[in-house]
Amino acid sequence: MSSGGGGSSEPSGVKKSSKRPKYSRFTQQELPACKPILTPSWVILTFLVAGVVFIPLGVICLFASQGVVEIVDRYDTDCVPESSRANKVAYIQSGGDKMCNRTITVTKTMKHPVYVYYQLENYYQNHRRYVKSRNDAQLRSPREENDVQTCAPEDNVVGHPIVPCGLVAWSLFNDTYQFSRNSQQLPVNKKDISWKSDRDSKFGKNVYPKNFQSGAPIGGGTLDPKKPLSEQEDLIVWMRTAALPIFRKLYGKIETDLNAGDTIMVLLENNYNTYSFNGEKKLVLSTTSWLGGRNDFLGVAYLTVGSICLFLAVTFSVLYLVKPRQLGDPSYLSWNRSPGG
What we know:
single chain, about 350 residues, alpha+beta, four-stranded antiparallel beta sheet, 8 helices, 11 strands
């Protein structure tokens, strides 16, 4: 017999569903934490320490950058005969000798190794279609040489796959430089100019160029079909595409000191077409410091931030001394109250 009562009762053992999360000090943000109170003294001290640290760092970085000796010589216009400067594109696309002599004067002693770079401007290697026109798997393994789907329009020649395929490899830089001083050749070391990780991991030791630059039009430099891609370091350097339209890439190293006042004769071959897009070509000789090449940005950034911090520290100190404000009682803060109070 059931006992009286008009309402229906829920069966025993059935729990109400609840969306309340399981309690924990982590989910309720009740773990011990550092909750500093930014008093004027702490703020002034923080800005002061930042300024005292950043300003000397900025000076050190600027001195390191200014210690780098750099010579930049733009040659794209001067190496075109005056009679052809009205139509530079036609000149660079024509055949014939394109040798050019340049003279560089060393203003300060350059300790070896002296790095030789080529610098291109208004060249957008980061363009989406350009960057995608390559196949990294094909560069690593001969088994992937037929996979040229992502390399159009430089994917095959008369049905035969191009290795390496794609626009990036096709546009390989092909100007050359020869240096001499006092009628003596200055050899350029082109070994280990690329990243070791690229040589070991991204370019195969048993992958050889095939059908490269054998179709029309020819974009840039050629490759030695008898050397594996892992040993063709000019290509490896070029295939690491630049993020900005002004970039430098390493051409080689001169393993001899260049003294102040030396006259360096440069015999260059002006082959690469930057005239179609109003690009610029420059030859750069540079030393390095412990920070790398010449770049004043880091030093200027440290000096700027340090000066601003020092200025704010002085400003807040004056305001605090001239017109101080009484701080509130920190015991009224929520995390300082007792649960019962």
